[in-house]
Specification:
InterPro entries: Aminotransferase_I/II_large (IPR004839), PyrdxlP-dep_Trfase (IPR015424), PyrdxlP-dep_Trfase_major (IPR015421), PyrdxlP-dep_Trfase_small (IPR015422)
Keywords: Aminotransferase, Pyridoxal phosphate, Transferase
Largest sheet: 5 strands, mixed
GO molecular function: transaminase activity
Mean pLDDT: 77
Protein name: Histidinol-phosphate aminotransferase family protein
Shape: globular
Distance between the termini: 26 Å
Number of strands: 13
Organism: Streptomyces tauricus
Helix content: 25-40%
Length: 520
């Protein structure tokens, strides 16, 4: 049974659905650290209302997409002619590619897979700008612009925050990026996870996008509301761009669940805002707990997930499979994301009791023991000789290990686990890090084929040579904040549905959202 479950991860580029896992295992679904949605919404009160209306929802046709979009725009205080709603962000990405991307598209990697896969499937050139592991996967917009100009790319995408690393750019930096590339055919700012960010009060550029000729903002409902299965998202742009996408969408591309939720939102705004603050609080606590594990590197994130580098000697697919089969915990191993490798996993922010279960599982799989008796893991400060097993990924992997939370590497340096006498007992699953000790000598330098900027990429794939530390050479690109944000107090709930404060709603009476990237 375990082999059947883990084999689901080797049949495609994305994680299997929870329904597929349940069918293969014959059990209830695992604790989900893979699918990045809000664990605190819908509230029990809202879920009870949805349950009571289930028969009507699944029996009758929904209203037209125009009717549902009009209600959403009334909530957002946006003109309907500037909005197009889709059956998930993948539907909108598909039509953006077909209608608005002519020959080439630039995207930083690693990122959400549909931004690389969709244009390749339609014969476009995808210019991939590798994010530097040595710089914590932070995007330098000035270098990205230079890359776009050197490649002659006609469309550019930024995911803010980025998936899977959670990297964030301030609003004014995003606007300066759009200004610098005003001559491109298209700029897409994918704000799929912006709802969970707290680095700025008003980080979205939705209001500015409707005034620009070539900018689309992609936003979410499914992830933010904890309703991935409903499949709904939307885009905002000037009336011309939005109208082109909207004209290609079917009349009933939105289902009755989507309609029901959209019309319910005005009654649950305060509960929704509280759920976001709970996710932000849990993100800080989860990062703190994970960063205490020896050899684990946790990267600062503004999404509802954390990007984690496993200790030297740990292989992500093995960690994923053992966590699932031995501990009923599902994580997102990132070896099939271009620009990443199997040494990285993405972990969705979840309540504290679930995080404690995750930490116990990681201690057992990585070290074979609990934290109090776990042997320290050596942390390498220079290049490693690991391979993801995927040539296209290895060519994009950086030549040095990145820096996560300060002090973790220093605490682990020089403390190598000593070999111990094996007990006389039946063989048990070996901890991954302990199994690697004594088998790895000095770190091996990466070959030319493993560094960025390598020629001979597969058809349609291109890379840029490493640029080192980011240099903000152009005006309008201030350095990004490096410290993790402090938790914000939960605001007083306001009567009358959705909050109407500028800090919570971008001045539009409704909080910022992000587009539901179904597969992560």
């Amino acid at each position: 049974m375990a082999d059947n479950v883990t084999s689901l991860f080797r049949t495609g580029a994305h994680s299997p659905s929870m329904a597929a896992l349940a069918r293969e295992s014959g059990e209830a679904g695992p604790v989900d650290f893979c699918i990045p949605c809000n664990p605190y919404f819908p509230s029990p009160r809202m879920m009870d209302e949805l349950t009571n209306r289930l028969r009507d929802i699944i029996t009758y046709y929904p209203s037209s997409a125009d009717t549902i979009t009009a209600e959403l725009c009334n909530l957002l205080q946006l003109p309907p002619q500037c909005v197009a709603m889709g059956n998930g962000s993948t539907e909108l990405i598909t039509w953006i590619d077909h209608l608005l991307v002519r020959e080439s598209l630039a995207i930083p990697v690693p990122t959400f897979g549909r931004w690389t896969d969709q244009p390749l499937e339609t014969g476009k050139r995808v210019d991939m700008f590798p994010l530097q592991e040595s710089n914590g996967f932070a995007l330098d917009p000035a270098q990205y612009i230079q890359f776009i100009r050197s490649r002659g790319t006609r469309a550019a995408v930024i995911c803010n925050p980025n998936n899977p690393d959670g990297g964030f750019l301030p609003k004014q930096t995003i606007l300066a990026f759009c200004d610098a590339l005003a001559d491109l055919d298209l700029i897409v700012i994918d704000e799929s996870f912006l709802e969970f960010a707290d680095a700025e009060n008003e980080p979205s550029i939705v209001e500015e996008a409707v005034m620009r000729p070539n900018v689309i903002v992609l936003r979410s409902l499914g992830k933010n509301f904890g309703l991935h299965g409903v499949r709904f998202g939307y885009m905002v742009a000037n009336p011309g761009l939005a109208g082109r996408i909207r004209s290609m969408l079917p009349k009933w591309n939105l289902n009755a669940f989507a309609e029901t939720v959209v019309f319910m939102l005005k009654d649950y705004g305060a509960e929704y805002m509280e759920s976001l603050h709970m996710v932000r609080r849990d993100r800080l606590d989860m990062a703190r707990q994970l960063s205490m594990l020896p050899g684990l590197t946790v990267y600062p994130s503004q999404g509802n997930f954390l990007f984690v580098r496993l200790p030297v000697g740990a292989e992500g697919t093995v960690v994923r499979d053992r966590l699932l089969t031995e501990h009923r915990i599902l994580v997102r191993e990132c070896g099939n994301k271009i620009g990443s490798s199997s040494r990285f996993v993405r972990l969705v922010v979840r309540p504290q009791e679930d995080v404690r279960r995750l930490v116990v599982g990681l201690e057992a799989v990585l070290y074979g023991t609990t934290r109090r008796s776990a042997a320290p893991v050596p942390e390498l400060a220079t290049g490693t000789g690991y391979s993801s097993g995927t040539a296209a990924v290895d060519r994009l992997v950086g030549s040095t290990n990145g820096q996560g939370y300060p002090g973790l590497a220093g605490a682990a340096n020089g403390m190598v686990q000593q070999p111990q006498q094996l007990p006389q007992q039946p063989p048990q699953p070996q901890p991954l890090v302990a199994a690697a000790n004594g088998m790895v000598g000095q770190p091996q330098p990466l070959t030319a084929a493993q560094t960025r900027g390598t020629t001979g990429m597969p058809g349609g794939l291109t890379a840029v040579a490493a640029q080192g530390q980011p240099q903000y050479a152009q005006q309008g690109f201030p350095p990004q904040p490096q410290a993790m944000p402090q938790p914000q107090p939960v605001p007083q709930q306001q009567p009358g549905g959705w909050p109407n404060t500028p800090g919570a709603s971008n001045g539009a009476g409704w909080p910022a959202a992000g587009a539901p990237n179904r597969a992560g």
